């Protein structure tokens, strides 16, 4: 008999699903018709206030993530779209790497709010991959690695990049339901991204 202490606790983020065959599909076939305009890069369909979409954990879906981010910023120039997509992709990489969202059947949600002066993106994941929780009433926000942008840095780049290039960013400080956000102002004049060019 296996002692109870040897049985790992059941992860509530993982749902038992019956096996289905694997298939190769055009990514469009996975997007419901009502949400297709979130992904088609058309600047004429940019008049939104909030867009929200839930993505699955498969890395094969990352082109869809980039299309979503790029389309959220479709009403801006190529430079802005590129930077917004880059920073949004870092939030997603972190959700997939450091949270339960990256596990099989995991999911995370991107919410983009369009403001008059810029775009605000939030990535909501399924909580720290270690199962760590934050006691009620406490918050422990993420902290960027001060050496994350060093040439030889092998990790710590994501939040350091966010810290350097977003107009503002932060997170809710709750390990078991992490929400990480950034705001990128449309005016990139004083942004290090523009100055480095
Ligand atoms: N969504 C998240 N959930 C839990 N922890 C996170 C999350 N995002 C970031 N972290 C924590 O913050 C640390 C720093 O993140 P950052 O993106 O800067 O570096 P990294 O992901 O470790 O490496 P890199 O981005 O260079 O591949 C991570 O190592 C992780 O401990
Ligand atoms: Mg990262």
TrEMBL record:
The keyword Transferase applies. Keywords: Kinase, Serine/threonine-protein kinase, Transferase. Transmembrane segments: none annotated. GO terms for molecular function: protein serine/threonine kinase activity. InterPro entries: Anti-sigma-factor_SerPK, HATPase_C_sf, HATPase_dom. SUPFAM superfamilies: ATPase domain of HSP90 chaperone/DNA topoisomerase II/histidine kinase (SSF55874). Residues 125-147 are annotated as: Disordered. Residues 57-166 form the Histidine kinase/HSP90-like ATPase domain. It comes from the Bacteria. This is Anti-sigma regulatory factor (Ser/Thr protein kinase). It comes from Nocardiopsis algeriensis. The lineage of its organism: Bacteria, Bacillati, Actinomycetota, Actinomycetes, Streptosporangiales.
């Amino acid at each position: 008999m296996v002692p109870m202490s040897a049985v790992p606790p059941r992860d509530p983020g993982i749902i038992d699903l019956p096996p289905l065959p694997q298939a190769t599909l055009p990514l469009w076939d996975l997007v419901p018709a009502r949400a297709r305009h979130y992904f088609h890069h058309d600047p004429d369909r940019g008049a939104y206030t909030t867009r929200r979409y839930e993505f699955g954990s498969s890395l094969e879906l990352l082109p869809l993530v980039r299309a979503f981010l790029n389309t959220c910023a479709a009403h801006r120039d190529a430079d802005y779209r590129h930077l917004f997509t880059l920073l949004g992709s870092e939030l997603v990489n972190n959700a997939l790497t450091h949270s339960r969202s990256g596990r099989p059947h995991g999911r995370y949600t991107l919410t983009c709010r369009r403001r008059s002066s810029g775009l605000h993106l939030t990535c909501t994941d399924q909580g720290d991959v270690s199962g760590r929780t934050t006691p009620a009433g406490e918050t422990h926000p993420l902290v960027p690695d001060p050496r994350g942008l060093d040439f030889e840095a092998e990790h710590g780049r994501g939040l350091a990049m966010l810290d350097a290039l977003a107009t503002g960013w932060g997170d809710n400080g709750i390990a078991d339901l992490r929400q990480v956000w950034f705001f990128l102002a449309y005016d990139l004049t004083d942004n290090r991204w523009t100055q480095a060019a």
